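Deliverable D4.2, example record:
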Amino acid sequence: MTADPRASVLALLRRHAELPLDAHEAAMTSAMIAFVREHADCAERSLAVGHLTGSAWIVDAGRKRTLLTHHRKLDKWLQLGGHADGNLDLRSVAMLEAEEESGLTRLHPVSAALFDVDRHRIPARKSDPEHWHYDLRFMIEADLDDPFAISEESNDLAWVEIERMADYNPEESMMRMARKTLAGFQF
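Output generated by the structure prediction step:
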């Protein structure tokens, strides 16, 4: 009998569910666990109802700044990340997206554990219907002196004081990551 390739994702999510999460994040974590159990193809972009994505909450060593991208398609400041395209190693997805979207070369995962999860609707665009992104987020540390490069997916990149997150993106999804970082989130 072969092991279910989704086992590692489910283990990450179950471990995250054991943390003292706020009610909204706890509900999203439960919804993600159910989604992954229901869909063997949960990491495939072709799953029209939604799919897993991996994101990098890139922070400096002092946890005072985060690197944000001004996303070209969504026209807002966000953490870096993207589609899993079948890869169930979401931390690797987050690292790859961070490297590709920032050009940073000295990135280090803070932990193998999840930092945050978020389920959000993506609006219909061209041939893609409206769908859910089930976003697994990892904290990644970067060197402020490592030069970054703006990719084709971004209008801009900027190191932002985490305390000023509301000036860039006041959405709860972003504010929650800011609050967790400033509170000294423990993995």
